[in-house]
Write a structure and sequence with these properties.
By secondary structure, the chain is an alpha/beta fold. It has one domain: Rossmann fold (3-Layer(aba) Sandwich), CATH 3.40.50.620. The protein is about 35% helix and about 10% strand. Helix 4 links the parallel strand 2 and strand 3. The structure holds iron/sulfur cluster. Iron/sulfur cluster binds near residues 126 and 127. It is an enzyme of class 1 (oxidoreductase).
């Protein structure tokens, strides 16, 4: 009988017991792949921390399944980065997940530039629903969230009960700072999105991403003009 920790059998006690008190990011990843095997995927945004996590995952599981939520609206630099990463880690199983509705269909049904009138609906259709489908047969997923990124993310743990998708969400990099991330990238000569060097600490779709001051709010350049700060993947 498979006794892995799942959304359904979650208890605080089981969660606390899963890792030792001194566990670090690599211990978390090793535990996650041991616990879930093929029933876990990494949803990578291809941001700076996403590349760090990709490299760490490659050390632990060379054939790991990784997805990118391809809204069809990302920067060309992001797509170029994905091509470089695929070349660097040919053994990793990286897939681009697309929404059911293409942009022309979305425009027809919901009007031109939905991200300007209803970004929550746009994110829901282009990110949340595709991730839900990708997770449907899985027990857990991995995310590169860091506590430092925003007040809303400051409470994340290594292992989380994800009420949104009814899965276990593993976040190995919660204690990493932006400086840690960039140091790791440079030290290991890893490719990363050149927009990070142009004032974009957080990179999403072109229409919803502006530069932000790194030392103020990492996500202040996302959905400028709206109170929205999250695409909905990490909100219960
Ligand atoms: S980030 Fe903007 S363009 Fe991308 S899915 Fe969300 S609202 Fe739509």
């Amino acid at each position: 009988m498979n006794k892995s920790l799942t959304y359904e059998n979650w208890t605080e006690e089981r969660q606390v017991k899963a890792l030792s008190h001194n566990s670090d990011y690599l211990d978390v990843l090793k535990w996650a792949y041991q616990e879930y095997g093929d029933e876990i995927i990494y949803s990578c945004s291809f941001g700076a921390e996403g590349i760090v996590l990709m490299d760490l995952i490659h050390k632990v599981n060379k054939g790991a399944k990784i997805i990118f939520l391809d809204t069809g609206l990302h920067f060309s630099e992001t797509y170029e980065l994905i091509a470089k990463v695929r070349k660097r880690y040919p053994s990793l199983n990286i897939s681009l997940i697309k929404p059911q509705m293409n942009l022309q269909q979305q425009e027809k049904w919901y009007g031109d530039e939905l991200w300007k009138t209803n970004p929550n609906l746009c994110c829901h259709m282009r990110k949340v629903v595709p991730l839900r489908e990708a997770l449907s047969e899985k027990k857990a997923w991995i995310s590169g969230l860091r506590k430092e990124q925003s007040p809303a993310r400051s409470h994340i743990q290594f292992i989380n009960k994800d009420e949104k998708f009814k899965k276990i969400k593993i976040c190995p990099l919660i204690h990493w700072t932006w400086e840690d991330v960039m140091t790791y990238l440079h030290r290991n000569e890893l490719p990363y999105n050149p927009l990070h060097d142009k004032g974009y600490p957080s990179i999403g779709c072109t229409a919803c991403t502006l530069p932000a001051a790194v030392n103020e709010d990492f996500r202040s350049g996302r959905w400028a003009g709206f109170s929205k700060t999250e695409c909905g993947l990490h909100q219960n």
